[in-house]
Amino acid sequence: MPDFSMTNRTEAGGDVAVILTPDEKGLKKVFGIPAIRRIALLCSRNGFKDIHVVGLTDPFRPILSDLVDPERFHAARDRESMDEIASVIRRSFADAKKVFVTKAGLVVDKMNFLKLTGMRGKNISYMEAGGTGEGMFLCSSQNLAPVLKHLWSPGDCPEILKDAQLVKGSSGLPCALGGDGRDKGAESKLVDAIVAQTKDTDGFFSRHISRHISLLMSTRLALTPIRPNHVTLFGAGTGLLGALFLAQGGYLNQLIGSLLFLLCIIVDGVDGELARLKLQESAFGHKLDIITDNIVHFAIFSGLGWGYYNQTGASAYLYLLLALLGGFILSGAVVYYRILRQPSEGLRPGRLTRFLTLMSNRDFAYLMVLLAVFGRLDWFLIGAAAGSYIFAAVLWVATCNKAGISPAMQAGSEADIP
Q: pLDDT tens digits for 23-40?
């Protein structure tokens, strides 16, 4: 018999999520996290604070104990009980609310989740999983019962899709879990989603080299207890070690230092990927990533200038280092005052945005290695000093308008994906 003991009411204005569990597919792990927990985490972190679980309940209670209140579990064995359960759930919130409904055995990334849940204007919007009629639904409270029935027994209520708004997913998501054991196909689609999200902001070398290496690392680390912040600190340590080598001066030290900095850049992609794969994004992690990035850049540039001074004894390198650090500080100040302190206003997508993305991406690490091979890192020092002031000036001019900043420039996660 269904459990209709739920009595608490949700405050008006909040969003409600209902996760169907007609079977135990939601227990299958995707990158070490049960599928149902992945869905519940996406819901709770993106405005759906009131989460209900309908169907088999006992196997899922321990997994969701920190995300779902005990009275929000509704035991059910067949679709005939969906009307009564929907009625009970509706009584917990205002009629005007939108409800997110899906099955537990489904995999989706954050971008597709937000794309669907951000829809407005239709009583029912849905995103299919592989053209099966299953998938994720956003509906009004009045349509909750038929949506539950449709998802419980796909094909029994085809009329529900006639007037519904179909929202196209990307990267093959959402997708339904199938078979026994680890579903590598679903994990591969989550990886494809990361690649799709970063292709417009990655530089040429980042897209074709760094991203392949970092994803190879992050997909394996996702199956371990290692957290994104651990990777962030390891990457920062690698970069600081590279700065130490650069500060010694000499061909071999400069080459080793440049290679260590390149490794730091690659690892810096791993922490963000790992955070998304394991749903471990946090504001603290995002800030830690930004702080360590700036510390490493400061150390690398300082080490490079000091290394040339140690190697040659020429005071010109100290002046060049001071000029570079001044441009570095100026660029940081412009970014802070013109972007970070502002609401979503600043740059329209276009040539300026693409130029600034090019100036701020970290493909320059490959240039450093190339110049180190030929013993001409002093060229990089000169170019970086001039480029920092150009970057600051162009960014200041570009942000004097009132156009909207590209979302990619403001995206935050536990560890920012460069």
A: 999 999 999 999 999 999
Q: Give yes or no for a contact between 320 and 381, defined as CB atoms under 8 angstroms apart.
A: yes
Strand order across the 73-75 sheet: 73-75, 50-55, 16-21, 98-103, 135-140, 124-128, 165-166
DSSP assignments along 184-217, one per residue? HHHHHHHHHHHHHHHTTTS-HHIIIIIHHHHHHH
| Sequence-separated (6 or more) residues with CB below 8 Å from residue 375 | 251, 254
50-55 and 33-34: which strand pairing? Answer: unpaired
In sequence order, which ranges of 199-335 are alpha helices (DSSP H)? 204-205, 211-221, 228-248, 251-277, 283-312, 316-335
- Where are the alpha helices (H) located in 96-175, listed in sequence order? 110-117, 144-152
Copy the structure tokens of residue 381.
Answer: 């020092």
Report yes or no: 102 and 51 within 8 Å, Cβ to Cβ.
Answer: no
pTM attached to this predicted model:
0.81
Encode burial over 21-49: b for 16+ CB neighbours within 10 A, e otherwise. Answer: bbeebbbbbbbebbbbbbbbbbbbebebe
Residue type, position 109, single letter: D
Quote the distance between the C-alpha of residue 73 and its chain's center.
29
Residues 412 and 418: their CA atoms lie apart, in Å, by 11
Given a contact cutoff of 8 angstroms between Cβ atoms, the answer to whether 137 and 154 are in contact is no
* pLDDT single digits (tens) 181-200: 678 889 999 999 999 988 87
Pairing state between β 98-103 and 135-140: antiparallel
pLDDT score at 394:
82
Q: How far is CA 384 from CA 21, 159, 312, 321, 365, in A?
A: 56, 62, 20, 10, 12
Residue 210 · residue 198 · CB < 8 Å: no
> How far is the C-alpha of 13 from the C-alpha of 22, rounded, in Å?
29
CA–CA gap between residue 356 and residue 346 (Å, rounded): 12
Lookup: tokens for 94: 């205002």
Identify the three-state secondary structure at position 111.
helix
Best CA proximity match to 381, nearest among 265, 241, 257, 204? 257
Six token digits for residue 86: 């929907």
CA dihedral (21, 25, 28, 31) in degrees, to 10, reads: -80
Residues with Cβ within 8 Å of residue 197, at least 6 apart in sequence: 111, 417
